[in-house]
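Could you please consider the sequence and fold following this short note?
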Amino acid sequence: MKISVEKLKVKVLETFTKSGFTNTDAENVWNYLLWAEMSGIKTQGIIKMIGTEPLQNIKPKSEVRIERDKKLSQLIDGGANPAPIVSQQASDVAIRKAKEHGFGIVGVRNTFSSNGAQAYYAEKIAKENLIGIVCSRSPASTTGFDSIDPLFGTNPIAFGFPTDNEPFVFDMATSAMTFYGLVLAKSQGVKIPKNMAIDKDGVLTTDPDAAMDGALLPFDRGYKGAGLGMVVEMLAGPLVNSAWVDNKTFKEEWGSLFIAIDPDLLIDTSLFKKNASDLISKVKQSRKRPGVEEIRLPGEMALERRIEVKSSGLIDVEESVLRELGYL
């Protein structure tokens, strides 16, 4: 249902500050949630305030701490803080190091909750005229390689590229659907699509509860999807000393990796942006399949939605989520 952005902001900030968050941290979480909700990414927006691990109920174990800091890199211990808070700090550090030295890589471990939409951080990096690569692993929920055990998280990866116009951003989960897609389906009392998940015995299911007890499938239901999920697990698990394949020794830890690259390492940034824009133009002008009116690129619809929300001041949020939060 449509709700005023300002009205929703007041309620969300009040929820977080009442839970003990500082005004700054509450504002940072709101900025992320708003971006995801405005983009139409319903499984990564306000819904993260409900379910088994609502963002506002997370109780950090310690302050965010820098474990290692080098010229091009940094490793951050999140202190079990919500990931959207720590991840904004990490992307800022990656941006700063890339601007100073051409390249920045930041690992984050020991956060409690996922980053949400990786595109938010990849876009943030790209808007600084840098190439952004962001990936994240989460507690095991996705199977692969013909196993029926949950092995990897939903393990999303995103890329952001600066252009002469808006950044080009591509973001995907390596699972068939996001875990919060299951949470949303359960909240709405509906089934999930077929061929998305299996139950604990390895049988295909459309029941979100059974899927939570079982496992999601890789995005392509095959070897390539499982392989890409494993690659993300490597980058955001062992490389940052986070958890990995934690289906038997679950310790609720999320790991992330943020990379920022200055195109000027290879060519002038202005030339890269010009070239990237030309590439996009050629793709958009390619011949269309019968019945297709326009070639649409990843992120275009999300950008249009954000522009519309900013213009109208109204945002569409799932009514079931608002009711569960007590906002209706």
Observations:
- The chain is about 40% helix and 15% strand.
- The CA atoms of residues 100 and 317 lie 40 Å apart.
- The longest strand covers residues 103-111.
